[in-house]
Design goal:
The protein is an all-alpha fold and 96 residues long. The protein has 2 domains: 1-40; 42-96. 80% of the residues lie in helices and 0% in strands. The chain has 3 helices and no strands. The longest helix is centred in the first third of the chain and has 38 residues, at 3-40.
Length: 96
Amino acid sequence: MSPLKTKKLRKIRLKLDKLDNSLIKLIKKRTNLVKKVLALKDKKNQIVDQKRINAILRNIKKKSLKNNIDPKITNRIWKNMIWSYIDYEKRNFKKK
């Protein structure tokens, strides 16, 4: 790789790092909201809501296409995020 390309790559990676820091802050906010949702659930079987999951994924696909983003990327990201939070809820569910 040429020195010019190396310099450009470094600049782009710095921008990616800054963006990652912003994503971490958003994930923290989302986690706090998930904690509030979990506190409202009475039974562990309320954690997985397949209708809501399907609606979210459909909505993300529409938004991805509208914003010219490959929907396979966003689908995979959201599925992983959803199932990661489901796992989090299951691990943190407290019987009332």
